[in-house]
Write a structure and sequence with these properties.
Layout: E1 5-6, H1 8-12, E2 20-24, H2 36-43, E3 50-51, H3 74-83, E4 91-95, H4 102-112, E5 118-121, H5 124-130, E6 157-158, H6 160-169, E7 173-176, H7 180-183, E8 201-202, H8 218-226, E9 235-238, H9 244-254, E10 261-263, H10 266-270
Parallel strand pairs: 1-5, 2-3, 2-4, 4-5, 6-10, 7-8, 7-9, 9-10
Helix pairs in contact: 4-9
Length: about 280
């Protein structure tokens, strides 16, 4: 079973296999047209793929203090997986446009609720079509009801208190996946406070991708993450709202650097409490 990245050549050999569940995660850039992903799905998607909406299936409603893209309720997310035919032994393959963040988010959510047989299609929809993979525009396939229950892996996540404690005792290293200018507190357009968590290092999530949207090879990723000087189990990933941070986490797992964690609330949750420290520059 595939647990991180899967090539289109392998996926093509499993099209039509009822044990392989494909999920289209395409979505507009944050702040863009929320219907774009639905439109793209209707225009063309991989055969048999279901659609997962970032704001409906992959998040719970924001409260103003829990970040822009809070984790969904695990039982609700598991119910969605059952609704698209997922069983405990199913292989899930998630894809987005390619070189993006949304399939990594879906991958993380599946891992978080205890389903390990989940992978991201390397290069996404763009690579699939470039390699002449089949595309259909028919309606969503008719599912049967799957059987899967959440078994949350609490080791995968950290919360604001965990990060605060790490700042105090040096027990973890925070890795921020945002672009360098936002990390420095410049050109902030999404959040009301600019800057970063004190002591965090910056590694833009796009550094994991080649120009065509495929992931770098595992050895290249290992070398890149190795420059951070932090062991994988110490790293807590964050970004603006927990989406692009999942790309860094996925890239580390693909490179064999396991047991890092995600701070799902990320910067947008961190700044909701004015007592939490902020650093700029």
């Amino acid at each position: 079973m595939a647990t991180t990245i899967i090539e289109s050549s392998e996926l093509k050999t499993h099209l039509g296999d009822p044990n392989w569940i494909l999920v289209d995660c395409r979505h507009a850039p944050i702040g863009g047209d929320p219907e774009l992903g639905h439109t793209q799905y209707r225009q063309g998607h991989l055969p048999g793929a279901f659609y997962a909406d970032l704001d409906v299936q992959m998040c719970s409603p924001p409260s103003g203090t829990n970040g822009r893209h809070p984790l969904p309720d695990p039982d609700t997310f598991a119910a969605y997986l059952r609704s698209i035919s997922v069983n405990d032994g199913s292989q899930i393959v998630a894809y987005d446009a390619g070189g993006d963040m949304f399939a990594a988010r879906f991958w993380f959510l599946c891992r978080w609720i205890g389903h390990r047989n989940v992978a991201v299609l390397d290069g996404g929809f763009a690579r699939w079509t470039a390699e002449h993979g089949p595309v259909v525009s028919d309606v969503t396939p008719k599912p049967h009801t799957g059987m899967i229950a959440p078994h949350i892996d609490h080791r995968l996540v950290a919360d604001a208190d965990d990060v605060l404690a790490a700042l105090a005792d040096g027990s973890a290293d925070v890795l921020d996946a945002r672009a360098a200018d936002r990390f420095a507190g410049e050109n902030e357009t999404l959040d009301p406070v600019a800057g970063h968590i004190p002591g965090a290092q910056n590694r833009f999530y796009k550094l994991n991708y080649r120009a065509d949207g495929r992931f770098l090879a595992p050895d290249a990723l290992r070398a890149s993450f190795g420059t951070l000087g932090a062991s994988p189990e110490r790293i807590v990933h964050q970004c603006g709202s927990g989406l692009t941070a999942a790309v860094n986490l996925l890239a580390m797992e693909y490179a064999g650097l396991v047991r890092s964690r995600l701070y799902a609330g990320s910067w947008s949750e961190w700044i909701a409490d004015p007592t939490r420290p902020v650093e700029r520059g």
